[in-house]
Every structure is written in structure tokens, then in C-alpha cells.
Amino acid sequence: MHVVYPAPKMNVNPPLHKARLEKLFLNSKKLKIKLSEEDYILQSEKSIIALDKATQGSKINNIYIASFLKNNDFYYANNDEIIFYRDDNHLSVSGGYWISKDFVSSIISYIKKNNLDQE
């Protein structure tokens, strides 16, 4: 069984924020929308504790979506080509696709680690 932890909630709606900047003729291509690790911990602490308690002692694969979006103490909502979010706290189809390799790798590693591929 797998439990997927929530994605970080951004302080802005990334697609809307980038669109507004483009309307103002600002170069939004280089803009990285990010959330600090400190802000992520403050916003997610209760849900992470609750999910950790609920899965404690069970053979469950905890999948942390946030870890797939993290780079150097920040959680990013976009890169130069893709906006990962459709609003402030839900991944877009493109964002889901972008993290899918890491997501699937996490599941495969868990299966191999727990010898579940032998069942």
C-alpha cells in the first residue's frame, strides 16, 4: 500500500501569477515560483504528523510529493518550461507527468525493498 503526502501549497496561484506578469510585459520565463522549506513545514506539519501516525508500524510506502519538487531548501512550482501547478495546491497534468518518473521509482524501490515482486 502507498500513501501519497500532499504537495506544497504555494503562496500564489502559479499559472495565474505568471500570466499576470506576462500581461505586465515582464519576463516571466526566468521567474521561479517557490516556497521555502520553513513555510512548507509550517503549513504541512499537522497533516504530515497525522499521516505519519496513521501509517506508523504498517508496511506502507510513504510517498512525499514535496521531495520531487524540492531543490536547495525550496519547493518549486515551475521550471523554465513547465508550471507544475494548476492552482496554488494542486499539480497540473504537466506537473504530474514531470514528477511521474520519481513517483514510479519510489513505488518500484518499495516493491523491491520489501520483496513484493515475488508474490
Characterization of the model:
The protein has 4 helices and 5 strands. It has one domain. The strands form 2 sheets. Strands 2-5-4 form a 3-stranded antiparallel sheet. A hairpin with a 2-residue loop joins strand 4 and strand 5. The two termini are about 15 Å apart. The radius of gyration is 16 Å and the shape is elongated. It is an alpha+beta fold and about 120 residues long. The mean pLDDT is about 90.
Describe the protein's topology.
Layout: E1 2-5, H1 14-23, E2 34-36, H2 37-55, E3 61-64, H3 65-69, E4 70-71, E5 74-76, H4 93-113
Parallel strand pairs: 1-3
Antiparallel strand pairs: 2-5, 4-5
Sheet with most strands: strand arrangement: 2-5-4
Mean pLDDT reading = 90
Q: What composes the largest sheet?
A: 3 strands, antiparallel
- Ranges where pLDDT stays below 50 over 5 or more residues in a row are none
Assembly form of the protein: single chain
Percent of residues in helical segments? 40-55%
Tally of contiguous helical segments: 4
What overall form do the CA principal axes indicate?
A: elongated
Integer-rounded radius of gyration: 16 Å
How many structural domains?
1
Order of helix and strand elements from N to C terminus: EHEHEHEEH
First and last CA, distance: 14 Å
Strand content: 5-15%
Beta strands, count: 5
- Name the structural class: alpha+beta
